Amino acid sequence: MENKVLDFCVFTLYFKEHNHSFSSFCLMPSPQPTQTQSIHVSNLNPNVKEADLRALFEKYGPVKSVKLLLDPEGCSRGCGFVEMEKGAALEALLDLNKAPYCGQVLDLTT
Known about the structure:
The structure is a single chain. The strands form two sheets. A four-stranded antiparallel β-sheet has the order 2-3-1-6. The chain has helices at 2-17, 50-57, 86-96, and strands at 36-42, 63-70, 76-85, 100-101, 104-105, 107-109. It has a domain at 36-109: RRM (RNA recognition motif) domain (Alpha-Beta Plaits). By secondary structure, the chain is α+β, with helices and mostly antiparallel strands.
């Protein structure tokens, strides 16, 4: 942190000595990668498909991925994972945990 403060002080002095105004120069932070959160969804009705789960969670924001866990015969195990942006995931978690959905009560964890 000390180096960053020192660099900023040197930068400030340079601008003042050369009569530049800060309004003519903008420091832009480097873009941060979007942080995502994976939500484990359990107690799903076996008839729920990935598209249904995606539609349910897209009400809260863009969904990066949805994965239902299947048994060897291809039938739903009643649980899966939804990955989405962290803020939207938190909102979905707060709204949908213990909420009724397709005759079941959802159980969401991170």
